[in-house]
Amino acid sequence: MIASILPTYSRAPLTFVSGEGSWLVEQDGRRFLDLGAGIAVNALGHAHPALVEALGAQANALWHVSNLYNIPAQQKLADALVEQTFADTVFFTNSGTESCELAVKMARKYWYDKGAPDRTEIITFSGSFHGRSSAGIAAAGSEKMTKGFGPLLPGFTHLEFGDHDALTAAASDQIAAIMVEPVQGEGGIRPLPDVCLKGLRDLCDEHGILLIFDEVQCGIGRTGKLFAHEWAGIAPDIMMVAKGIGGGFPLGAVLATEDAASGMTAGTHGSTYGGNPLACAVGAAVMDIIADDVFLADVNRKAALLRQKLEGLVASHPDVFEEVRGTGLMLGLKCKAANTDVVAAGYAEEVLTVPAADNVVRLLPALNITDADIATAVARLDAAATTVAGGHA
What pLDDT does 391 receive? Predict the structure, then answer.
């Protein structure tokens, strides 16, 4: 008999009932150190006082009115994002998947309105993850994502990650957009080097191609800048955002330049819940904290501390780990042992991590994790690795 919850997840035997900061409490009372943050969602940890206050105040005032009317909290958050980024305009969604749908629509509508209705092809890369909608799985193109869900949405050209020659050959005046994650998350914590991001921008400028960045996982302070592409000193035309922007409340957004968004006029897109007062009140509180230069500087300091400790962990367990990957507080442990064994051994040591492709274990802690919690986390990972090395995971 099928479960009352559709069984599309293989869930760990854990049930959390409360959380505070970087800690989660299981219903049996055990306290787990959370290095997954809801897959990079709880950017400020669990039950952050400023977010709780913002949500409570808004909940006591107004929950939902729809986008038929002006929403002050939405305007405040849009203004903050425009002020802090390359963007001239913002559309709010509920998730990264919805942001992908709009980014694809926006790019294609742009060329339709420019008199090139056949310019619809979007270049994407192996190992990518852009959500699980029809557009998202077609964009990723992997068998794991697409098998059994045909016919797939056409209009995507899939290239191997890091194949510069193939990219140069594929780029032409007939390509609508290139869509890429500055740091692949699900694909195994694979950053695109700054020189490659700059090269992508130059290539797009040369051929008039729109550049779409998917910063759903790597954005909102995760790499030590507000957005990961800022390290390269360049900007996209369209950017997908979600996860950390809501600090745990469902919220996403598409940011764009005025030119890239020019085709999206009244009636071309919509969302019943996107940009609702509750989500935007929380999102504005998140931005107030994370967009601060002092906060981001501390993210970088903590990232250096965590990476140093993880390098020592890898050196201590050469049969379990190969290397540390990533940037900022978006790090991965490339494993020699099965990454799922490492994650499972972590459960036994009361530390939570997230598996990814390429046999990687993701570490995506809250951006405000304490130094003491970092030390505890690595000690627990060390104990988990010892278990795996002993073959008892």
Answer: 77
Q: What is the mean pLDDT of residues 157-177?
A: 93
pLDDT(159) > 60: yes
Rounded CA separation 133/100 (Å)? 9
For residue range 82-109, list pLDDT tens digits in order: 999 999 999 999 999 999 999 999 999 9
CA distances from 281 to 75, 81, 82, 91 (A): 10, 13, 16, 15
Beta strands at 210-214 and 238-241: parallel, antiparallel or unpaired: parallel
| Residue-wise DSSP of 77-132 | HHHHHHHHSS-SEEEEESSHHHHHHHHHHHHHHHHHHTT-TT--EEEEETT----S
Q: Any idea how long the chain is?
A: 393
Rounded CA gap, 142 and 229, in Å? 25
**DSSP calls for 142-185:** -HHHHTT-PSPPS-EEEE-TT-HHHHHHH--TTEEEEEE-SEES
370 Cβ contact partners less than 8 Å away, ≥ 6 residues apart: 21, 22
Q: How far apart are the C-alpha atoms of 26 and 101, rounded to whole Å?
A: 36
pLDDT, the chain, mean: 96
Select from 287, 377, 305, 249 the least CA-distant residue to 81: 287
- 311's enclosing H/E stretch is helix 293-316
Q: Would you tell me how many other CB atoms lie within 10 Å of the CB of residue 379?
A: 15
Pairing of strands 252-256, 89-93: antiparallel
Give the H or E element holding residue 199.
helix 194-207
d(CA 290, CA 54): 15
Q: Is the pLDDT of residue 393 over 50?
A: no
Cis peptide before 236 (omega within 30 of 0): no
CA distance 379 to 369: 15
Q: How far apart are CA 320 and CA 342, in angstroms?
A: 8
DSSP 208-260: T-EEEEE-TTTTTTTTSSSSGGGGGT---SEEEE-GGGGTTS--EEEEE-TTT
Contact (CB, 8 A) for 92 and 274: yes
Q: How far is the C-alpha of 243 from the C-alpha of 210, rounded, in Å?
A: 24
